[in-house]
Amino acid sequence: MDNGILTLFDVDGTLVIGARCHYMAFVHAVSKFYGMEEDISGINYAGKTDPQILREVLEMGGISEKVIEDNLQDCLDYMIQDYIANVHRENIRVLAGVSKLLKELKNENVLLGLTTGNLEPIAYAKLGRAGLDGYFSFGGFGSDSPKRPCLVEKALERARKLHEFKGDQVFVIGDTPRDVAAAKPFNLHTIAVATGSYSTQELEKTGADFVLESLKDVKGVMEIMGIG
Predict the structure, then answer these.
(1) DSSP letters spanning 82-93
(2) From residue 161, how far is each of 77, 155, 165, 178, 211 by CA, in Å?
(3) What is the CATH number of domain 20-89?
(4) What is the separation of C-alpha 227 from the centre of its chain, rounded to a whole number of angstroms?
(5) Residue ranges of the alpha helices (H) in 131-225?
(6) Radius of gyration for the alpha carbons in the chain, expressed in angstroms and rounded
(7) β-pair type (16-17, 93-94)
(8) Who has the most CB within 10 Å: 7, 55, 125, 172?
(9) What are the beta bridge partners of residue 173?
(10) CA 190 from centre of chain
(11) Which residues are bridge partners to 141 per DSSP?
């Protein structure tokens, strides 16, 4: 039974860092289906969904809309296969405070979900590699929509349908301005953490309700949520 609080976490830069094989799966898929070999490491991926990033990369490479559409789903499916085949190589690091925070929230019957631009199987494989897969059973994923606000909407819908969540205390936790912006249309509480590629100063400009250096102060995060 939940306690009326739902917390939706981003994955990369919020829960974990170091998912190099995800990037490589992307590179392999783009090469296989579109013949592109350009270096795409300079693109700012932060807060974007996998389908959104893929489309941006292909448009930058001059690939026509028809060719993009004809191969898009096969390319995404191949990304998933490639990642799952190589996830055992990942050197993922769980960020400071995350393991303890998830454990404490679970003990307090806080409903835990995800809002991540990762394709769903990649998100769960990544969290499994990091030892965090036992905490999450639903969310909104890049495989649901290329648009980040739709991921929040999907996660809320699944919380209500699958877990009968009826509370009005919902916190979205992420490390980018896009995480904050995606929660705004739904009037949700936002916690921005500077554990990704954005500083606290940059995140403060997003209008997030709370901006933290990290999730290391577990007690402080719990107090923000009105727990403890």
Answers:
(1) HHHHHGGG---E
(2) 27, 10, 8, 26, 30
(3) 1.10.150
(4) 24
(5) 148-163, 177-183, 200-204, 218-224
(6) 17
(7) antiparallel
(8) 172
(9) 9, 191
(10) 14
(11) 116
Closest to 159 in 3D by CA, of 107, 113, 225: 113
> From CA 132, how far away is CA 98, in angstroms rounded?
9
Q: Where in the chain is CATH 1.10.150?
A: 20-89
Instruction: Output the six-digit token pair for 215.
Output: 């999730």
pTM: 0.94
Q: Are 95 and 130 in contact (CB under 8 A)?
A: no
Longest dimension (CA), the chain: 55
Tell me the per-residue pLDDT of 185-199, one tens digit each, with 9 for 90 and over: 999 999 999 999 999
The alpha carbon dihedral of 18, 16, 91, 81 has a sign of negative
What class is the 5-18+93-224 domain?
alpha beta
- Tell me if 168 sits within 8 A of 145, measured CB to CB: no
Q: Write out pLDDT tens, residues 96-118.
A: 999 999 999 999 999 999 999 99
Torsion angle (degrees, nearest 10) of CA 211, 142, 25, 173 = 20
What is the C-alpha to C-alpha distance for residues 189 and 51, in angstroms, rounded to an integer? Answer: 26
